[in-house]
Specification:
Strand order of the largest sheet: 2-1-3
Strand content: under 5%
Largest sheet: 3 strands, mixed
Organism: Castor canadensis
Radius of gyration: 22 Å
Structural class: mainly alpha
Protein name: Olfactory receptor 56A3-like
Number of helices: 13
CATH topology: Rhopdopsin 7-helix transmembrane proteins
Helix content: over 70%
Distance between the termini: 59 Å
Shape: globular
Oligomer: single chain
């Protein structure tokens, strides 16, 4: 038994252990309750939104297709991360196989970037709707949504691919405990005996190129929208324009504030208990997916009506 164990260590690691909230095991169970609730809420609300948009003919429009796309991304992100976290909190199922870990890492990086890209397309949609309303029907067509979706997929599938590949090619020669609930790139590559500078640089450059360029484009769209809105003289026009952007803007705020908090906590790692960034990382995969469909449902008349019709027909 001992010989075999040593052999595994010398040739490398075959699986990892996810070490969740080590410093405070007592609140694992308490934490699992709100996490489970948010998880069920996210899955239920996104599924309801998808079904409503699918069944309600009046919602077969580009803007709602983009919302459906966002819901699909949210569902996949949630399923990639949360069931494993709950399995750790409830049953202490901490081992995760090598391949499962790198697959999780890839999906997280790829799908978060896709969400960010989807928000950019939505910002463009709002920009055309408010700044060029007469050309909206001719620019934002179903073909536009298909092309946008293909662009979102292609851009992020390929740019995110090197992240798990670089990590998987590192040599892991003994330490296999990931100080995290999820297979985040840096938490994993930190365990290797190799130099991880390339991983760090690629993650940093890739992240800032993708998320950074998206945030800049979203900011530009909203600046142009505000400029147009402030010029509107008609009674109630400003309120109407802002309300069409409101829900989209709230979604972006959820998404970017949590990302910002993550960046800050990682930079200030020494001063913050290690469990805080870990918890924020999990919440980033839970709070936007749980709240996005609710914000859309509450703020978008078409969706609200669609959900009511769906519930009546049941």
């Amino acid at each position: 038994m001992t010989a075999h164990h040593n052999d595994t260590i010398s040739t490398g690691v075959s699986d990892f252990l996810l070490n969740c909230f080590v410093t405070s095991p007592s609140w694992q169970l308490w934490l699992s309750l709100p996490l489970s609730f948010l998880f069920l809420l996210a899955m239920g609300a996104n599924a309801l939104l998808l079904v409503t948009i699918q069944l309600e003919a009046s919602l077969h429009q580009p803007m709602y297709y983009l919302l459906s796309f966002l819901s699909l991304l949210d569902i996949v992100l949630c399923l990639t991360v949360i069931p494993k976290v709950l399995a750790i909190l409830w049953f202490d199922l901490r081992p995760i196989s090598f391949s499962a870990c790198f697959l999780q890492m890839y999906i997280m990086n790829c799908f978060l970037a896709m969400e960010s890209c989807t928000f950019t397309v939505m910002a463009f949609d709002r920009y055309i709707a408010i700044c060029h309303p007469l050309r909206y029907q001719s620019i934002i067509t179903d073909q536009f949504v298909v092309k946008a979706a293909l662009f979102i997929l292609a851009r992020n599938i390929f740019i995110s691919l090197p992240i798990p590949i670089f990590s998987a090619q590192l040599h892991y020669c003994g330490r296999n405990v990931i100080e995290n609930c999820i297979c985040a790139n840096m938490s994993v590559s930190r365990l290797s005996c190799d130099d991880v500078t390339i991983n760090r640089l690629y993650q940093f450059a890739g992240g800032w190129t993708l998320l950074g360029s998206d945030l800049v484009l979203i900011f530009v769209s909203y600046t142009l929208i505000l400029r147009t809105v402030l010029r509107l003289k008609a009674e109630g026009a400003v309120a109407k324009a802002l309300s069409t952007c409101g829900s989209h803007f709230i979604l972006i705020l959820f998404f970017s504030t949590i990302l910002l908090v993550l960046v800050i906590t990682n930079l200030a790692r020494e001063r913050i208990p290690p469990d805080v960034p870990i918890l924020l990382n999990i919440l980033h995969h839970l709070i936007p997916p749980a709240l996005n469909p609710i914000v859309c449902g509450v703020r978008t008349k078409g969706i609200k009506q669609g959900i009511q019709n769906l519930l009546k027909s049941l």
